[in-house]
Amino acid sequence: MLAANPWRSAARTDAGKVRARNEDAFLDCPQHGIWVVADGMGGHQGGDIASQLIVASLAELPAKEDFDERLKDIRHCLHWLNRRLGQELTVTAGHPDSIMGSTVVALLLEGDRAACVWAGDSRCYLWRGQRLYQLSRDHSLQQQLIDEQGMSVEQAKAHPAAHALTRAVGAAEQLTLDVLELEVYPGDTFLLCSDGLYQGLSSDALGNALSLSAPHVVLERLFDGALHGSAKDNLTAVVIRQ
Question: Which of 123, 115, 112 is nearest to 34 (CA)?
Fold first, then answer.
């Protein structure tokens, strides 16, 4: 059995103001020290199925004692899901040309160790010492244009396909995951969220919300801010703090 986890968390999702269907999904499991946000690929057949499958599969992983083993299990599970989404589900759905995919960002915490695993543009933020850090780096055309062509954020945002993903679970035969491991400090607060949430909020707004004490109060502030805007996409957030 794992020791009691000192982390408190809260999670929320909303379809937003435009979309009829919510293709986001989340896992909020402080007792096992794992949290996940998955954003089904909009416009694709079965985006909501893909995101729900990712969350359900990660929730079923055994809560092993060894942190490195658990991290390995998360990666293996996502690679297995990538193959499954790419083959079985697409074919059985009767749409051989469609893609069934989803972004994923997962956070594993135990003691003073943290690991963030992701593919796509759902993000992991850290609020530490009154500063906001974006731990994940988007797998999107926008980020690629900034990294490889030296475009400014404004120039890259203006590209007609800026939001196109360069990686996602189920989108290609090979899945490449990014993993970031870090040491946890007292007072750290983590935010996992889909692009629908962070696109509607400035960095200052994110930081101001994360400076609040209780996770459910942070969520309320984030969603009030995002839903006050256009909220064209589904919104999902998980807030985790000690």
Answer: 115
